[in-house]
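Structure in, sequence out. Go:
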């Protein structure tokens, strides 16, 4: 039976480090501020945004929420971002994705000042990360990397397979693993013999968004499995109409083979918001020319 990687507990230690650095910045007269923009009323996004705001305040930072109606014109969102870019009380800006169809996601992302881009999605940050320069690092892959480093120490020379090629998780995850000297493969829906490929992975990161797609027979004995998926599925055993959360990995079969595995919920999920807080305090330190917190970035 695999060791269970407790992302919830690890995230709490990240938040403690963030809070300690926030306290230090406050003695220098600076309070880090995070602005979150939500366009529309997607219920899952509303839950995320509420949690982000709550945890931002709990670590001593300022939280600015901008909730806009679903039919807000793109130009209005861009004007708001311009204003936040120029606001000295705001050190991090995040626009919750997905945005409604009439808004160009890339335009919104690339309107954010790169030094305030706590999602690390701006083309400048993507390019800086890919070329090994100092950048803002996307929160979910950063959280996964922290868990992997804590488990393995050095990742050098390990075979890593990332299943999923999204801009938010798959691609930046692969970049970070390469930076830590893994041999990296990105697998996706068109990959041939994906099961055999995954079975060679010392580190298997699942970020496809398909409930329990990866089963124990895809896992190399002793491998570390990081499950980024958050899928809501029907749970009739809990009563009519009830739902439960599952990952992209079939936990029961995979945990019988893996050396270590993240559960869903309680694995990668809590790390994402903790890393958003970490990125905000890192951005604030950099913007003010002050020392960065240690161990909170890649
Ligand atoms: N929607 C799902 N994940 C993310 C994320 O990491 N950042 C933003 N801005 N939106 C998301």
């Amino acid at each position: 039976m695999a060791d269970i990687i407790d992302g919830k507990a690890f995230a709490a230690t990240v938040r403690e480090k963030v809070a300690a650095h926030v306290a230090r910045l406050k003695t220098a007269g600076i309070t880090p501020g995070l602005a979150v923009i939500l366009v529309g009323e997607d219920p899952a996004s509303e839950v995320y945004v509420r949690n982000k705001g709550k945890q931002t305040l709990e670590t001593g930072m300022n939280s600015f929420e901008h909730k806009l109606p679903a039919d807000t014109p793109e130009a209005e969102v861009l004007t708001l971002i311009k204003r936040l870019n120029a606001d000295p009380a705001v050190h991090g800006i995040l626009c919750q994705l997905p945005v409604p169809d009439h808004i160009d996601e890339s335009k919104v992302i690339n309107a954010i000042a790169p030094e305030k881009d706590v999602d690390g999605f701006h083309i400048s940050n993507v390019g800086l990360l890919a070329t090994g320069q100092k950048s803002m690092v996307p929160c979910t892959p950063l959280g996964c990397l922290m868990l992997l480093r804590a488990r393995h120490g050095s990742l050098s020379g390990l075979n890593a397979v990332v299943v999923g090629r999204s801009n938010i998780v798959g691609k930046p995850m692969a970049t970070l693993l390469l930076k830590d000297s893994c041999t990296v493969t990105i697998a996706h829906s068109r990959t041939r013999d994906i099961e055999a490929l995954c079975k060679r992975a010392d580190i298997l990161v699942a970020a496809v968004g398909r409930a329990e797609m990866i089963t124990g027979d895809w896992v190399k004995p002793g491998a570390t499995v990081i499950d980024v998926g958050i899928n809501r599925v029907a749970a009739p055993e809990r009563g009519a109409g009830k739902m439960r959360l599952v990952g992209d990995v079939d936990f029961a079969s995979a945990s019988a083979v893996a050396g270590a595995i993240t559960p869903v919920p309680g694995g990668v999920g809590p790390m994402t918001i903790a890393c958003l807080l970490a990125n905000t305090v890192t951005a604030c330190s950099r913007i003010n020319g002050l020392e960065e917190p240690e161990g909170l970035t890649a």
